[in-house]
């Protein structure tokens, strides 16, 4: 199997295709997407899966982590990719993996010391030397429980000017399971930023299962009717939940 064929198979067999791509639940350039869940339900694993989906489509992804070291993030990608390619021969998967690595750059910040000037400075170090130009950015660990309106507003302007989409992980509380769809409010602590987020996915337990639901979509679909299961062993999206 050629690398390009394997790449296309992974794209089209991804459960994210049913819940994100086919229902237009994907941020347009300049858009924001959120992955919401309480602690331990797989926010980072899903964020990495979204990043991998972009990388498979030849998009360059800048992964920004608040607190975790680069090596830990690399292990997340390696584990997610290994679980995605268990049905394929190792040499085929290995060859594709080597090509995908050039599509990812990891940047880490101390969560208490992150600022937009520091972000711009670090990004300029990459772009001005022609090292890396991202098509998408994933933020893991931005503290939404703090007042980050200024940061999000500036990131939204930045995303619009550079025509890239940005995904965030958002830690919710145990009781933040229901979404006030009639008021178009997202669960706390994202509710006060609902108007600037285009897409929101929520991981939550339901009847002894872990389910990934679309709770805000850019497509002409009823959110909450779209869902897939999360594999509790790998924390990856899998078959449709029905």
Structure description:
With 242 residues, the protein is an alpha/beta fold. It has one domain (3-240): P-loop containing nucleotide triphosphate hydrolases (Rossmann fold). It has helices at residues 3-13, 15-21, 43-56, 70-84, 90-100, 116-127, 149-162; strands at 32-37, 61-66, 104-109, 136-140, 165-171, 199-206, 209-216, 227-230, 237-240. It has a nine-stranded mixed beta sheet with strand order 3-2-4-5-1-6-7-8-9, sandwiched between helices. The longest helix is centred in the first third of the chain and has 15 residues, at 70-84. The radius of gyration is 17 Å and the shape is globular.
Structural descriptors:
242 residues; alpha/beta; Rossmann fold; 9-stranded mixed β-sheet; 7 helices; 9 strands; globular
Side by side, the strands of the main sheet go 3-2-4-5-1-6-7-8-9
The tally of strands reads 9
For this structure, the quaternary state is: single chain
Portion in helices: 25-40%
Structural class: alpha/beta
Taking pLDDT < 50 over at least 5 consecutive residues as the criterion, the unreliable ranges are none
Major β-sheet annotation? 9 strands, mixed
What is the residue-averaged pLDDT? 87
């Amino acid at each position: 199997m050629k690398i390009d064929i394997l790449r296309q198979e992974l794209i089209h067999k991804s459960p994210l295709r049913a819940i994100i791509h086919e229902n237009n639940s994907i941020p347009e350039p300049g858009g924001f997407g959120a992955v919401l869940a309480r602690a331990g339900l797989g926010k980072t694993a899903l964020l990495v899966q979204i990043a991998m989906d972009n990388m498979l489509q030849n998009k360059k992804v800048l992964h920004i982590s608040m607190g975790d070291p680069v090596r830990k993030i690399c292990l997340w990608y390696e584990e997610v990719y290994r679980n995605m390619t268990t049905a394929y021969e190792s040499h085929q998967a290995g060859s594709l993996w080597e090509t995908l690595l050039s599509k990812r750059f990891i940047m880490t910040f101390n969560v208490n010391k992150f600022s937009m000037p520091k972000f711009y400075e670090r990004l300029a170090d990459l772009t001005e030397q022609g090292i890396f130009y991202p098509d998408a950015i994933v933020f893991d660990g931005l503290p939404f429980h703090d007042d980050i309106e200024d940061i999000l507003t500036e990131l939204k302007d930045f995303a619009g000017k550079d025509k890239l989409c940005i995904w965030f992980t958002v830690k919710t509380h145990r009781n933040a399971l229901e979404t006030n769809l009639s008021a178009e409010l997202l669960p706390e602590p994202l509710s006060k930023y609902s108007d600037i987020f285009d897409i929101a996915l929520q991981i939550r337990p339901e009847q002894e299962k872990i389910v990934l639901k679309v709770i805000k979509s850019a497509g002409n679909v009823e959110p909450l009717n779209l869902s897939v299961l999360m594999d509790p062993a790998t924390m990856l999206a899998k078959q449709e939940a029905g």
